[in-house]
Amino acid sequence: MDVSTVSQQLAIDDETLENRWKALSAEIEARFGRTPDVDAYLFLIGVQSVGRGYEPDLPKERKQSLIMEGSYLAMETFGIYSRVGMERNGFLIWEKEIDLPQLSVEEQEKLLRIGILNYFEETSLGDEDGSLD
Predict the structure, then answer these.
(1) Cα 65 from Cα 106, distance rounded (Å)
(2) pLDDT tens, position by position, 9-39
């Protein structure tokens, strides 16, 4: 993908994005008993990526690392980052593939939400066809 693809993703209308977000939130709430915010979604993605499951009482630094891992995985759905290896601790090694233009805070949040949706729609949290609709 390139920057124009990211621009196309950001052009998704807010109502469509909100409907997809609500569907994901309902699925997560049904499975885990509460609806997470964006950072909690990224944390959940990070936990899933290292394949160890949730560990209570994680140090703050470990939680932040898992949120970053989730961010990379969400951005991978656009081709912004790609996996190039794995560290001994189970975290992936990432390489930036494209530089993004300057984005507003709102655009950054929207891009993260779309990346999170893309990630979950491509994983087992979606229906058999991979969607959450």
Answers:
(1) 23
(2) 888 899 999 999 999 999 888 988 888 899 9
Q: Is the dihedral of CA 13, 132, 112, 36 positive or negative?
A: positive
Long-range CB pairs of 92-98, under 8 A, 24+ apart, other chains included: 92/49, 97/1, 98/1, 98/2, 98/3, 98/6
Give the pLDDT mean for 57-61.
Answer: 89
**Hey, what long-range contacts does 106-112 have (CB within 8 A, 24 or more apart)?**
107/10, 109/38, 110/10, 110/12, 110/17, 111/6, 111/9, 111/10, 111/75, 111/78, 112/38, 112/42, 112/71, 112/74
Instruction: State both tokens at 6.
Output: 């990211």
Output the furthest CA–CA distance in the chain (Å, rounded). Answer: 42
Kindly indicate the confidence band of residue 127, based on its pLDDT and cuts at 50, 70 and 90: very low
Q: Where are the domains of the chain?
A: 3-121
Give me the sign of the Cα torsion angle 73, 74, 77, 82: negative
Residue type, 82: S
The alpha carbons of the chain give a radius of gyration, in whole angstroms, of 15
